[in-house]
Amino acid sequence: MMANSATRAVRILAMCVLAAVVAVGLAPTAATAVNLSPAESPTPFPTPSPTVYATPATVPTQEPTGPTTAPAPAPTQDVVPVSTPTPEPAPAQVHAQEEIISDGVIGAKWQLLGGAAGPLGPATSNVSCEQNLLCVQLFAGGRIYSAPSTGANAVLLTVGKTGPQWHASGQLSAFGYPVGDEQCAGNGCFQRFSSGLDITWNPVGGLQTVWTKGGIGGALFRFYGGYAQAGYPTAPESCGLVSSGCEQKFGNLRIVWSPASGAVGVWTPGAIGAAYARSGAESGWLGYPTSREICGLKAGGCYQMYQRGGIIWSPASGAQTSGGGIRSAWAGSGFENGRFGYPITDVICGQPASGCLQQFQGGVIYWSPETGAHGVIGGIRSLYDSLGGPAGGYLGYPLDSEVCGLSGGGCYQPFQAGLIFWSSVTGAQPVRGGMRAKYQQMGWHLSYLGYPASPEKCINGECAQAFQGGYLTWTPAASLDYRNSECTRLNDGGVKYSSGNASHVTLVYTAAYGQSYAGVAYCKRVAGMYVTEWTTNGFVGASGFKPPGVPSGPTRYNYSPTGSFSVTEAFGLGNPGTALPYRTLNPGSRWGGNPWTSTYNTYFESSSWVGYDENMWYFATRRQHDYRQGAVINYNRPPDSPIIQDAGFAIFLHENKVPTAGCISLDDWAVVDFLQKSTSGDRIIMGVAADIFR
Amino acid sequence: MAAPSPDALVTDALKNVQCAADANGTWSFSGTLTNTGTAAVKYTIAIAVGTTSSVAGHSMIEKELAAGASTEVHAAEVAHAAPAGSTCEAVVSK
Lengths: 694, 94
Known about the structure:
The complex is a heterodimer. By secondary structure, chain A is of the alpha+beta class. Among the domains of chain A are: 10-46 and 68-201, no CATH class; 485-692, L,D-transpeptidase catalytic domain-like (Beta Barrel), CATH 2.40.440.10.
């Protein structure tokens, strides 16, 4: 209420004022001026509702809520700055004898500001009130307005930064009356008026206005601590952004508003702001911000949400955009608290099949229109990357997340063109195509095969893949499975003798010296890997093996040689279908056993049977039919070596599975199958196990 | 696959085979060779003594028989001191 106490009134004998009416129709007053710089304003700025910035989001999986500000009216346009304020309307006539009184709250305010010696100077009118609500008194250096709700506030004419602008730019009709004095702090000043407009000034932005009842101005005080924390505006509020948006910059804070999103700020020098700018800001795919920047995430991270995604930052990962299906998949994994951690790149599109990817600290999430978004992580990710991912690899995009908890702690992940299995023993290995179909048919990792132990290897239209318990092979004709055997050791360096890349290798081994009973593994080479055609048992020389490098000697001592020998020819009573050069025996078939003769350790024919020569016909046709089918093992003979007399001869693989004079004897079926599958150059590696296996 | 049966093998031509070692360890062979065919045939009998893994001694008999003819065949001292478990086998071919 306006007080009119005569005791508190300051009575000034002045000239008569002749109805000097101010623009609002109030009678002017006079006051004593004092020098009061804006920086010395004694009244603190009315506290805007200070929203605590950087509230930690302890649960990052929850999207932040948008600002609670009701949609603001479109901010008002700035008034045109006028450098020269219009002087206070001077009384038309001042009668020296008329007394101008400045009393009540206005008078008190005038006195507080220094009275006639202060910036307001002497009153030039008495106090005038409108319906006892708003009162005003004019002074030579400005005005003091008083309202019940705001008290008395001065708006200076020439002193300070904001008052002159008010006086020059429309005064009450443009701004309303002051609801506070000019406040200066933080390298700038402002004054608030009843319309909701602030007039501000700082050295960088000069004079600006802020519509504090609008979305942007409201957000400035509600979320960002007003000018003290955000800074003074450096530009007018500007509209015409995409989707009918507006913006205004306050120091390093750019507050943008749109009808759909409301007003939210973006810290322009910050990493998140930079990422936002990189994405095209509100014109980019993210759209307008819908939340403040929220910190307190794991490892010091922050994030800000936008209409179509978010930007997340941490010291280790930088600021990266996040949106769409990839963001959904990331959310499903627990955001930065999950296995993927923080993103370390933006979403990168332009991948094959219109796909996108985003790299995270712990993995990569891929998305394509056909497959959706799925992450690839850990060992499976390493393999997927090494295979070229979706860009250069054959697997295509992931179809689902990895599935763990398989037997032995294994995992798998399906892709468009195959799967990747992982176990701690085998690491990550791919399975695809025909191999995959066969593997699935056998029950995946639950069959004897277990987990894949290597990628498939394909050569000349044949493929082979190693598993824990065996192998799968693929040809256009069939997919086959093979159990592990000693053949596997040909692939892992477990055999001391070279396979020579032979199409087939037969491993014949006894447990110890002096033993004739032998294990036998017939190994087939498929795509560079040896798989097990079959395993069986048989016999070698009745005296067992001679050590490596020691001649087996005459057959009458029943020793077998140790080593790796080629097979280049076969014999018998009729070709069983072998690709080996085959010799059909006749009654004159002999194999030279008499040393220092020209026929030693060679085939020849004779009607006689002399000394240690072998009568092959006899051995082929006698009841036990040893040589009914057989193959020559090139021990002590070309092409493996020159013939050394008396070093040993007639070392064959043949039928009649009994201890031999140095040969290898197998069941009839095994010998026939051996011949039917073998080709010239195949090898037989034979010896005591300790001598041929590592 | 059936085992091959070469035409040269005429096992049925030899009957009454006896092949054994005497008290001194000397192996001797005898048998009856018969040509049941309609033409003369030259037979070869291969005899060996030994264990399954090696030959301790061997012998060959060649005999030509007219059609329908039959004869006793013998081979003395096929082997001496053959290892224990040795057996004697004879194969007749034409």
